[in-house]
Amino acid sequence: MKNRFIPGKTYVRVSGKVFDDEEINNAIKVAKDGWWTEGEFGKKFESDFRKFMGVRYVSLVNSGSSANLVALASLTSKVFGERRLKAGDEFITTAVAFPTTVNPGILYGLKPVFIDSDIDTLNANVDQLEKAITKKTKLIMMAHTLGNPYNLDTVVRLVKKYNLWLIEDCCDALGSRYDGKLVGTFGHVATFSFYPAHQITMGEGGAVITQNPLIHMAVRQFRDWGRDCWCDTGKDDTCRRRFGWKLGDLPFGYDHKYSYSQIGYNLKLTDFQAAIGVAQLKKLSYFIKKRKENFKKYYEFFKKYEKYFILMKTSAKEDSCWFGFPLVVKKEAPFTRNQLTEYLEKNNIGTRNVFSGNLLRHPAYRDIKYKTVGNLKNADYVMNGAFWLGVFSEIDEARIKYVKKTIRKFLELYC
Questions:
Q1: Burial of 206: CB neighbours in 10 Å, binned 0-12, 13-18, 19+
Q2: Which of 144, 188, 198, 256 is flagged as catalytic?
Q3: Pair 192, 170: CB distance under 8 Å
Q4: Residue whose C-alpha is closest to residue 279's, from 30, 10, 89, 106
Q5: What residues contact 324, with CB distance under 8 A and at least 6 apart?
Q6: CA distances (Å), origin 345, targets 35, 341, 352, 392, 403
Q7: For the segment 287-323, what is each residue's pLDDT rounded down to a tens digit?
Q8: Please, which of 24, 186, 187, 370 could form a disulfide with 166 given CB 3.0 to 4.6 Å?
Q9: Residue 83: Cβ-neighbour burial (10 angstroms; 0-12, 13-18, 19+)
């Protein structure tokens, strides 16, 4: 039962899970069946998600961060010959990022090349993209920030021109479209997160999608311990020659289920997670609709205060399923981002910064080898001035009214 919202007392969450009895009943079914690793619900979710996205292959993993890891790892497979990613190659990304969009490349020995972001989209400045490309560039890996698609016309054109890989990080952007097509269907491989903050949740969980059978095979290998076998969990002898292989220096007939062709991981999820995801996926169209509606309501309100805030700009081709409502406090405003967000939090309104701000300002990245295009001034601007409010389906008219009232009070104090 939904709790009554009490202005000033009930916390206005920026994000969170919204569910009903179906998610709980599905999880109970898994518990009773006793098959707790990936199983029937995993297969059901992959099938349903394939249909929604219109792609050939879906692989479930235990988080969006794992999705990014296995997506990049898949492109290091030797099946791609000279095109495969290897240590010393360069990949282009942006400094306004969630860490695990960038970390897989670093962990595999690639050198990140950071481009700046546009302050009124928070996405990568694609005008800098071609300047960042060198003979060592093999990959572009960037997120659609807060669900707002980046300029895929330019990105895809350059990917084709220079024969690069494109990984679309869609962890915040499930349901967003560009030129009528769902984001995630433009790149060679794309990733999604089902953490509670996102459009749908499994508690933890993620997915990797692709149209390419070789990428799909590599994703499954890296996800499933690095083994060469492609049997589903609990299945044997899908290839009909389980004891008929000769791989590496192994003896002929060595069990294919225990033959390893990649340095892999175990990144699978449980069927509990998938069971919750199956129920959540049925609600996705409603969740998308509510996020768009709430974004529009906030936009109309903050439009009156543009002398203090930079609002997000979208092109006619972009149809965003917003992860949150982002705002950038202008440098000339008579208050700071922190003053506003602290005031909101004291009044029980949740806020979040835009992820890392400038990722390179964080201690973890102090000693990495990297390159930049320009001085990343907008990334610093985002770090100091940007935040976002929640737009997920729990945000109803009463909550929006209270947020607006609180913002007005704050502006009266400072302006």
A1: buried
A2: 198
A3: yes
A4: 30
A5: 14, 15, 146, 147, 352, 388, 389, 390, 391
A6: 43, 6, 10, 18, 11
A7: 999 999 999 999 999 999 999 999 999 999 999 999 9
A8: 187
A9: exposed
Domains of the chain: 21-281 (3.40.640.10), 284-414 (3.90.1150.10)
Q: What's the whole-model pTM score?
A: 0.96
> Residue 386: which residues within 8 A CB-CB, separation 6 or more?
122, 326, 327, 328, 329, 337, 353, 354, 357
The strand order across the sheet containing 386-389 reads 309-310, 325-329, 386-389, 352-353
Q: Among 137, 100, 96, 99, which residue's Cα sits nearest to residue 114?
A: 96
Q: H/E/C letters for each residue in the chain?
A: CCCCCCCCCCCECCCCCCCCHHHHHHHHHHHHHCCCECCHHHHHHHHHHHHHHCCCEEEEECCHHHHHHHHHHHCCCHHHHHHCCCCCCEEEEECCCCHHHHHHHHHCCCEEEEECECCCCCCECHHHHHHHCCCCEEEEEEECHHHCCCCHHHHHHHHHHCCCEEEEECCCCCCCEECCEECCCCCCEEEEECCCCCCCCCCCCEEEEECCHHHHHHHHHHHECCECCCCCCCCCCCCCCCCCCCCCCCCCCCCHHHCECCCCCECCCEHHHHHHHHHHHHCHHHHHHHHHHHHHHHHHHHHHHCCCEECCCCCCCEECCCCCEEEEECCCCCCCHHHHHHHHHHCCECCEECCCCCHHHCHHHCCCCCEECCCCHHHHHHHHHEEEECCCCCCCHHHHHHHHHHHHHHHHHHC
Query: pLDDT tens-digit profile of 162-190?
Result: 999 999 999 999 999 999 999 999 999 99
- Cα(194)–Cα(3) distance, rounded to whole angstroms? 24
What type of residue sits at position 377?
K
- pLDDT category, 3, cuts 50, 70, 90? confident
Unique residue bearing structure tokens 């990613």: 85
Looking at residue 1, what is its pLDDT? 44
Count the alpha carbons within 13 Å of 373 in the hemisphere toward its beta carbon. Answer: 21
* CA dihedral of 280, 234, 66, 49, whole degrees rounded to 10: -30
